[in-house]
Amino acid sequence: xxxxxxxxxxxxxxxxxxxxxxxxxxxxxxxxxxxxxxxxxxxxxxxxxxxxxxxxxxxxxxxxxxxxxxxxxxxxxxxxxxxxxxxxxxxxxxxxxxxxxxxxxxxxxxxxxxxxxxxxxxxxxxxxxxxxxxxxxxxxxxxxxxxxxxxxxxxxxxxxxxxxxxxxxxxxxxxxxxxxxxxxxxxxxxxxxxxxxxxxxxxxxxxxxxxxxxxxxxxxxxxxxxxxxxxxxxxxxxxxxxxxxxxxxxxxxxxxxxxxxxxxxx
Length: 266
Prior knowledge:
This protein is mainly α. The chain has helices at residues 2-29, 32-41, 44-48, 52-67, 89-126, 129-172, 186-190, 193-224, 234-242, 256-265, and strands at 76-79, 82-85.
């Protein structure tokens, strides 16, 4: 039992930073304004020759593609009065791999969220004040681990994002379809490396902000919460009496003969 309890705590500590990072990734992956901002900051319309209105529509179709069951992403846009395919076959095949990766991230996020909610609910249902303080300490451990990971990735991104980005693709994908030509492939023209570098910084900053909020809340609870023994379980006492167990001792009456002598003296 103790081993399972420790394992549950370790899983909770690990799930907290995983939940923060994957939630932020999922948020930005489904946020149209995030794509639109990138297109305008990096002049995607001029590089691709496709209007911003068409690129914005393509972004919405990419977001839907990550969530739906379609195997292949097919986007048609208008360029110079003609309807053309936005992506070539190599880019389309790569987007299949990207979709698999994004859905894996979404799945991990859902599992982490379910576990954290289940753990916290269990603590509230079955534990008293001491367990709530323990929950706050575990949350601090979890965000500390998350801070260490985000700080390490941030340091690598600042000192050498090119190498970090290449290594990420080598780990995440089993082929070389991600190696696109910025002169001809619109996918990398729409999402250049600078776009992803900025995205990494934004997600990292957002995660650190969430870490700070959890640290403040958990620390405030540990400092200001009442530090004492847990309240007695009144419900358990009531159940014991109902089961016939002896309750607290009542004051004993004096013997009958003593009471009779007192009455005669009166």
